[in-house]
Structures are given as structure tokens and as C-alpha cells.
Amino acid sequence: MASGGGDDDTGGKLLVNRYLKGEQLGEGTYGIVNKAIDTKTGNTVAIKRIRIGEKKEGVNFTALREIKLLKELKDPNIIELIDCFPYKENLHLVFEFMDTDLEAVIKDKRIVLSPADTKSYAQMMLKGLAFCHKKWVLHRDMKPNNLLIGADGQLKLADFGLARMFGSPGRNFTHQVFARWYRAPELLFGSKQYGSAVDIWAAGCIFAELLTRRPFAQGSSDIDQLGKIFAALGTPKSSQWPDMAYLPDYVEYQYVAAPPLRTLFPLASDDALDLLSKMLTYDPKARITAQQALEHRYFSSLPAPTIPSQLPRPRRKGDSGNNKIPDLNLQDGPVVLSPPRKLRRVTAHEGMEGNMHRADKVDEHPSGTRHTDDMSSQSSRIPMSVDVGAVFGTRPAPRPTLNSADKSHLKRKLDMDPEFGFGE
Amino acid sequence: MLGQPDPTNFCFRKPSHSIRLRQTPSHPPPAFSRSLFGRRDARVRRLAGIAVPRMAANFWASSHCKQLLDNPEDADLVPAADRERGITPEEFRLVKIHMSFHIWRLAQAVKVRQRVIATAVTYFRRVYTRKSMSEYDPRLVAPTCLYLASKVEESTVQARLLVFYIKKMCGTGSDDKYRFEIKDILEMEMKLLEALDYYLVVFHPYRPLLQLLQDAGITDLTQFAWGLVNDTYKMDLILIYAPYMIALACIYIASVLKDKDTTSWFEELRVDMNIVKNISMEILDFYDTYKIDPQRGLPEDKISPVLNKLPAKS
């Protein structure tokens, strides 16, 4: 069934009497993505063709999550799911077309981000997040390449394949979410009952990344990730974060005092640093919310955020090279600049983990190589910072997505609570 | 599941549908919110752990809310294709009741949460406000709804497991019209998504029920009221009313039947009691009319003739 419609990747075809199919943009997590013209509106759109699972499990689980949540979330800072339709036994999702993503902006060395530009991106990111949280949706995969940027410069949250609704009392969630570099400390300590604060931590990491143009903390394992965070922000004391010691995977770290934040972000304004420190607060209960962050004086003080349409654009690599569309992680990325060593490590290692990371029930995702794609698109750009360990070959530093977890262990952790147990 | 409550304790008249007023987003329930999340805010928050109950903040802007039927009679409209085959509104309703049981039994075999069952039945009922049973065989739509709901509610049941249990449940008799293969379910899943217009998030009365019972201090009624809520899925109420109103109606029935005085509590909520009483009456009418055996559902001889009017599966 999956390979059934192989002939319609050629383009130039009118689908369901509405979409004029264009070039193939790449292969995403769960299907092929094509550019298309919506003849009803004249807009360019991205059409994702959902493969039907080879293991006879119907419409892809991740795709279903995305449909379910995006149908409820309509906001200028959230990717729009324009339409869904079945065609040739495949489900097609129509998204608004997006030119690029925040990762491309951060990594493009030619771009100079002014304080006003950074503020604009941070504000759009937080607006999208505040809307999600208002609707009780956790994104759970905030990272620069999931923040897409449209032709008008608007930044939009995309890829809701890991997102889910929250608010069920005491319901357990998996802590195996987010790419590791954006994972909140409570998740790294194995917390299973978490809330919107996890998205805020990730947003804080992205904010920091905007300020310095390199990932805030690039851990190579969960333990290392925590070590890097603590080195930057100091080891949390129990007075700072009372619940910390009760988290499932809590381990005690050697005490390191926090260096002044200013030393890490020499060019940031005081307001920016104040907001950042509130987003990167250890105790999730004390962490600022998206709405509070938007009301922070950083956004009302000068300089005013840049108007989206005037934000700098990353240079395009050819027509489709650097273009990003929702959840598209180019598998056959056009130019791979990084040494093959890096790629090999990525595909052999992270693909499996990416798979795990997507799965609520692991065996539903037989071919999820999402983060393999992710990685190659990552490494197709020149890294901004040099990880000394990686250079000297002592320790790999790929953009990690998930620590390896024993399958059955993960399975056991997922969605097992009897919330509505009685009465059944 | 529960037996038939005794409706004689009720002294109010059956109101007509005309006074039923569905609250819309433009007319949110401020009094309700204040009472539930204001004065007893701390308690509700504690109850909810890290997160405040989602319903109040969210339902009014949801697709579920927008899709509520303006006219309750719409749920009973028999699609043209089915009318041509001689299916009456009563028969149409019977099939929906019967299939709710079918989903229920299947769900118990594959062991899913209550919420999944409720979502599945809601999908099932929504489909038949738009599609005909002649075109969408309810015997296939029912298990497919359960399949889809299990995925949406994040507790996936494999299609082959469903097929296995359908065969086990319906395989012995002459009932091979209930039997389908995996590919039938997967094909129907796509058609179902389209029929539902890809709106998949559904709210249910269960969570507000627990919160409201807690708030009213009558948690000893939980089991009984929960059973009532379960039974509301044998009807189309979930397509018509806000879930918390259904929860309130169940609390109302439960408190009257168990002699709990909740009058002042209801007054304090300042919800439209006409709606609550309307829903309550509909529920009691339902018990009165159908007198369904909670274990076995409707007798086969009532259902088979109706289903035989539908085209044989291809």
C-alpha cells in the first residue's frame, strides 16, 4: 500500500481538483512532501503524503497526532493545517508553505541578528507557545528547526508529532521527549508528570541560542547534558528546587556555583538576561509561563522587536535546497558539507533513537527514521561552535534526539495510568 | 453499567426542547467558572496535580463545541439513502444503541480506557449525522471507530487484535456480517477520518464529573453518577450538549435518587437548570423506553431485521 502511488511524484498534476502538484521537496518522517499550488487560493502549499504503515497499522500514529492537534490550533504563530484529503489510498496533509526555519537563520554566518531581531523571534516563538499552552497542548519538541519561517517572516511552531494534550490529573507521560539539548532538567531526571514548563525550558535554550548563535548546552548523554547545564547555571540547591531529589532518575551532582549569567551572554541586555534566567529556572513550578514571559519588560523595553517582514533571511541554497516545510527533515539534503565521519555516526546511531522517541508504542513505527533525516540536514551546515571532545575524537557530539532506552522499559513507562479505570 | 433508575422520584414535568439553550462561546459560564475555580481554586488545583482542569478553559474554543448540533432532533434524522431502504427513525436509533453496545463489548475484550470507548461512540454517532448506514456499514464503522479512538487517545489497539476479538465474539453464530478483515478496517479508517472532517478531539463528561462531585462534596455518588454518564453514550447527548452539562445532569439524577440535597450547590453554580433538567429527563426517558439489559444489550431479534435492510457487504 505504501508504495502504491509511486508514480505521482512527478508533479504537474491536479490533485482533488484543487492542488497543482509541484516538485518533491523531500521525504519527511512519515511520507513524501511536495510543493504545490492551491488553485483555490493561489497560495503555495506543502503537501505531505502519509504512508500507510507497512505493518498494517493504518494511518500513521504521528500523523494522526498532528492532525488531531493542528485542527484545534489556529494561530498566526502555529503552522496551519489547511486541508486533509485521501487520494490513491494515501492520506494527504496540506500545510502552508514555509521558506525556511530558525535553525537556518541561527546557522547562517552571514546573518547578523540585531537585538531587535532576536526579540522578534523570541516573541513569535513565545506567542505560539502561549497559544498551545492555553489550549492545553504541550509541544514537546521545541527546537530551532521545528520553528519554521514563512515568506512574510512570521515564525511558526511546527511538527506536532510529539505534542499532546495535558491536564489529566496525575497522568504519566514519557520523559523521552525533545531533542536532548532542549530537554528540561526535570525530564533529564526522569519526571513523568510534567507540564508546560518543559516547553518553556526548551524555548529558553532557543532564546540563548539566538543570543550566542550556538546551542546553549550540548550534552552527549543525559548525564552530560545535566552536567553542561549545571556548569552554566550552577548546580541546583534543594532550596532552589525542592522536588528535585524526589525525581525518579535523580543523581547528585558535585556542587558548582553559578557563574554570573553575564559572562555567558556578554552582549545581551539586562532585560534579556532577566527573562532568560526566568525561562531557565530549575524548579518547573517557579519557571515563568509563556504568557508571563510575553508580559516581561524585555518585550516592552527598547529596542522594539523587528517587524517580521524585515527580519534577515538566510541565503537560499538553490531553489529548494534550504527551504523548509512543516516537519520536513530532508533526507536527500542537497549539499552535505560536513565530513562523512559525522554523517555515518548520525545515521547508524540516531536513527534508531529517533524512532524510539517518536513512538508511544515502539513497534508502531517500523521505519521511523526521522532523526536520521534531521541529523543530515543538521550536519549539512557548518557548525557554529567546536566541541573539543568531538574534534579530538574522545566523544561524539551529534545533535542528539533521545538517549537510548530499553524498548520494554520505555513501553512500560508510556501511558499506563488508570485515570479512567473505574467504571470500566 | 447500571440498571434502570426509578423515575418516580422525579416530580418535574418533562420540558419541551424549545427551552433548551446550548451555551455558546459567546455566552460562557462565568458563574460556573468562578464557583469551580475561584473560591475553591486551591482545592481544585490540588486535585488536578500540576495542571488545572482543562475543560473550562478549553471546551468553548474547541472543535467539539463548534460541532454541537443546534437542533437536537438532527441526531435522529435518518439519511435519505437509509430512508429509501425503509429504515425508520426508531430503527435508526436502535442500531446506534446496539452498536454502542458492540463497541463497548469489543472495548472490554481489548481492554482500553473508558475514555477511548466514549470517544469511539462519539465518532460513531457523529458519522451518522452525515453519512448513511447503507453506505457506511455500522458493523464495520463501529470497530473502526474504536480503532481510531484508541490511536487518538494514545492507547493504540492493533487492528489485528480487534479483528481477532470480533471473530471470537461474533464468529460462532450466523453473524458473519460482523466479521471483517484488517484491510476493511484500515480502508474504513480513511473514510472515517474524512467523514469526521478530521476533527478528532472530543471532550467527555467524566473529568468534569469528578471535579464537580468533589466540589459538591458528594464523592460517595461517584460510582453511580459515573454509570449514568456511561449510559449517556447510548444516546446522542454528547453531540448536543456541553460535556459538563451532561455531567451535571448525571449528578442531578444521582443526587435526587440518593436523596442528597444539592439544591444550594446547583444554585451557586448558576448554570441554566432548564438544560440540566432537560438532559436529566432525556436520560430517564431513555431508561424508561428501552429497558436495556446492561449486560446483553438489545435483543438480536429487534436488531437483525433492521440490519437486514442494509445492503449486504461487498
Can you describe what's shown?
The complex is a heterodimer of chains A (424) and B (314). The two termini of chain A are 36 Å apart. Chain A has 424 residues and is of the alpha+beta class. Chain A has helices spanning 61-70, 102-107, 115-134, 185-188, 197-212, 222-233, 261-264, 270-279, 290-294, 297-300, 340-358, 370-379, 388-391, 407-413; strands at residues 14-15, 19-28, 31-38, 44-50, 81-87, 90-96, 100-101, 137-138, 147-149, 155-157, 164-165. Chain A folds into 3 domains: 6-96, Phosphorylase Kinase, domain 1 (2-Layer Sandwich), CATH 3.30.200; 100-310, Orthogonal Bundle (Transferase(Phosphotransferase), domain 1); 340-413, no CATH class. In chain A, the strands form 3 sheets. A 6-stranded antiparallel beta sheet of chain A has the order 1-2-3-4-6-5, with helices on one face. Mean pLDDT of chain A is 76; it is low at 1-9 and 317-424. The longest helix of chain B is centred in the first third of the chain and has 22 residues, at 89-110. Residues 1-57 of chain B have low confidence and may be disordered. Chain B is globular and about 55 Å long. Chain B has helices at 30-39, 41-47, 54-58, 63-67, 80-84, 89-110, 114-127, 138-152, 159-170, 182-195, 206-216, 222-232, 237-240, 243-257, 263-269, 273-290, 300-307. Chains A and B meet through α1, β5 and β11 of A and α3, α8, α10 and α12 of B. Chain A: It holds the Pfam family Pkinase. Chain A: Keywords: ATP-binding, Kinase, Nucleotide-binding, Phosphoprotein, Serine/threonine-protein kinase, Transferase. Chain A: This is Cyclin-dependent kinase D-1. Chain A: Its EC number is 2.7.11.22, 2.7.11.23. Chain A: It catalyses: [DNA-directed RNA polymerase] + ATP = phospho-[DNA-directed RNA polymerase] + ADP + H(+); L-seryl-[protein] + ATP = O-phospho-L-seryl-[protein] + ADP + H(+); L-threonyl-[protein] + ATP = O-phospho-L-threonyl-[protein] + ADP + H(+).
